[in-house]
Each structure stands twice: as structure tokens, then as C-alpha cells.
Amino acid sequence: MNSNRLEQGLQKLHEIDGEAGQAVINSLQHICPDLARLTIEFPFADVYSRPGLDLRAREIATVAALTALGHCAPQLKVHLNAALNVGCSEEEIKEVIIQMAVYAGFPASLNAMFAFAEVLEGRAG
């Protein structure tokens, strides 16, 4: 295991997701610590740390992809929070979700918007 890569991934994870990202990692530790490590190293050390897109753009793309997939509500909620954490506005996120109705269908967009409502409620209280 490359501890430098793990540390770089953990730093990026905390920058983007804060406690929500760490909760995902912690939830994997008892069943599959290797998947927890890979979830830190590949996405956060190898991909999110690349130049070319800032974190806002990366989270917009991630929210769009998870909305389009339509079956990733837990991951979508983490990344909706992350998008807000890195500077996306509520309006921008709503527009991304609406845009996905064209390409992923209304059910996927409706589910994503309801997930976003839950995220906003959680952040408010």
C-alpha cells in the first residue's frame, strides 16, 4: 500500500466531502477495508487531484452522472453535499438535476431532486 497515495486521497476526501465521506469509509472498514482504501486512493488521490477541472466542475459532473444512473441515492446524497461544500449553489445543482431529465428521464431527475431536498433539510437542521 502506498501510504502517500492514501494520505493524498484522505486529504482530498476531507476537502470535498468532510464528515460524510469519512462516514462512508468508516462504514466499509468492518466488512472490506480494501474497498475503503481503494475508494480513497483511486477517486480522490488519482482522479479528483488531477489538473484540468476544478472541484466544482468535478462535482457537477459527478452529480449529473449519479442522477443519470438513477440507482445511487446514498452516493448521490454524499456528492450533493460535496457540491455544496466546494461552492456550487443550490440553484446550480437544481439546474444540473433538471438537465438530466432530458438525458436520463424524469424518474431519475425526480429521485435526485427528492434526494437533494433531503440533503438541504439535513444541512439546515
Automatic annotation (TrEMBL):
<dbReference type="InterPro" id="IPR003779">
    <property type="entry name" value="CMD-like"/>
</dbReference>
<dbReference type="Pfam" id="PF02627">
    <property type="entry name" value="CMD"/>
</dbReference>
<feature type="domain" description="Carboxymuconolactone decarboxylase-like">
    <location>
        <begin position="33"/>
        <end position="117"/>
    </location>
</feature>
<dbReference type="InterPro" id="IPR029032">
    <property type="entry name" value="AhpD-like"/>
</dbReference>
<dbReference type="InterPro" id="IPR052512">
    <property type="entry name" value="4CMD/NDH-1_regulator"/>
</dbReference>
<protein>
    <submittedName>
        <fullName>Carboxymuconolactone decarboxylase family protein</fullName>
    </submittedName>
</protein>
